């Protein structure tokens, strides 16, 4: 297997393992066993498990980042885009049977106080994510489709903070109730 193929395999398996078991619940041995490579291969491609954790954040966000295009799809009104975006996230969690939750939220809860590098990376992801939602909210406000009583950045932060709480609760309860509640409040009280 080529070096790049081994790194790709470790990266993919690493994300899956960290997402399923958490950072502290996953050992380097778990990851190399799942990847079917020698432990030395891990350290050839990653300086540490923390380096893999940073890679996993980037990989996860890179996989979900394109979904942000829902928020910029000018063929739909911004209110519909916001609704469709969060519905698509809820469908993903449902497809995972509410077992994994949002990796960004999970890693934030687990690692923010343990790894300054991961905390900074997660903060950067949240900032970009919030900005993408904020721009869609601003557009809805500019069009008059949504109240301008609150700052668009505040609304975007509130939506993502609420989403992460609902995703965590769905993981705990193993059902869609918290996500359904989030979507109901968002569409009937916020996006008006």
How does this model look, in words?
The radius of gyration is 18 Å and the shape is elongated. With 192 residues, the chain is an all-alpha fold. Helix content is 76%, strand content 0%. The model has no long low-confidence stretch (mean pLDDT 95).
Order of helices and strands: HHHHHHHHHH
Point out poorly predicted stretches: none
- Cα radius of gyration in angstroms: 18 Å
Backbone structural class: mainly alpha
Binned strand content: under 5%
> In angstroms, what separates the terminal alpha carbons?
55 Å
CATH homology group of the largest domain: Tetracycline Repressor, domain 2
Percentage of helical residues?
over 70%
Briefly, what is this?
With 192 residues, the chain is mainly α. Helices cover 76% and strands 0% of the residues.
Keywords:
2 domains, 192 residues, Arc Repressor Mutant, subunit A, mainly alpha, Tetracycline Repressor, domain 2
Write the layout of secondary structure elements.
Elements: H1 3-21, H2 28-35, H3 39-45, H4 49-64, H5 69-72, H6 78-95, H7 103-111, H8 116-143, H9 152-173, H10 177-190
Helix pairs in contact: 1-2, 1-4, 4-8, 6-8, 6-10, 7-8, 8-9, 9-10
